[in-house]
Write a structure and sequence with these properties.
The structure is a single chain. Helices cover 79% and strands 0% of the residues. The protein is built from three helices and no strands. α1 runs antiparallel to α2. The longest helix is centred in the middle third of the chain and has 62 residues, at 49-110. It is rod-shaped, with a radius of gyration of 34 Å.
Length: 140
């Protein structure tokens, strides 16, 4: 339970920055394409055929860079998620064993807390009465 929640929290905390990076790259590519569209495309009919071809090649390259960076970030998110899921699965059994052991130890120490001192455990053995009966004969 707690291990699964920890794994989900880790995955979520790593995915958010990667998604933000992807959004930033996408917005940057869009800004470049918008700039080219506003500044260059309006004058492309005045350019020579060679210059127009260079502009088209540039636009294609910018779009391709945005696409590849998007794929890269998506791939990183997938790989990080897979690694964290594997770590979560590896840690789940030993951490659950530790949790179970701690619960057993705590239960042994505390006993039944609602049993009015009759629930066993180190703190539930009516130690107060036993202590008084042991100490009373020692009183001066």
């Amino acid at each position: 339970g707690n291990v699964a929640n920890l794994g989900k929290a880790l995955i979520g905390s790593l995915q958010a920055p990667l998604r933000n990076a992807l959004t930033t790259v996408t917005n940057a590519v869009d800004a470049v394409l918008d700039w080219v569209s506003d500044k260059i495309m309006s004058t492309i009919d005045k350019l020579t055929e060679t210059a127009a071809q260079l502009v088209i090649t540039l636009l294609h390259a910018v779009a391709r860079i945005g696409y590849e960076v998007g794929n890269l970030v998506d791939g990183l998110v997938s790989q990080v998620s897979a690694i964290l899921m594997a770590v979560q699965n590896i840690l789940q059994v030993p951490l659950n064993l530790v949790s179970s052991t701690l619960n057993t130890v705590i239960g042994s120490v505390l006993g039944c807390l609602t049993c009015n001192g009759n629930g066993g455990g180190l703190l539930g053995l009516n130690l107060g009465k036993r202590r008084r009966s042991v100490i009373k004969p020692l009183a001066f």
